[in-house]
Amino acid sequence: MAGMNTTVAEYPIEEWNKVINLNLNAVFYCCKAVVPFMEKNNYGRIVNIASIAGKEGNPNASAYSTSKAGVIGLTKSLGKELAQKNIAVNCVTPAAAKTRIFDQMTEEHINYMLSKIPRNKFAKVEELASLVTWLSSEENSFSTAAVFDLSGGRATY
Fold first, then answer.
1. Architecture of 13-150 per CATH?
2. Assuming Cys at both sites, which of 15, 52, 98, 116 could form a disulfide with 151, CB separation 3.0 to 4.6 Å?
């Protein structure tokens, strides 16, 4: 959920809570629910979807940026907790991809996001799916607690 495009000072608390609950708390609840089964089987793969906004922050998108930064922190923490149990926990931080989330954003915000991507195009959903497929596979036997950039060169770290 993108949430409103407005300043922190003007951001409604109810909207803030809605974005945090859906984008961060829901990821926590899902991880909390599946981890016991993965631990019992001594195997699992969790791939959380964050956003480049969680690494860099987008102006007038504080709730979204904060929620995605939280997903990154949760991924790193949980990945380290489970590293000895053959359970990999990673996340991907894509730049924007043209999906229905654009319907929640102003044209100004969409243009801002595009202006920050050196490749000058939005991510393809298929590119994201390909990376998530590998991270979810047995082939990924080493990487955990990692953040995989898919930002078209936007990421600064």
1. 3-Layer(aba) Sandwich (3.40)
2. 52
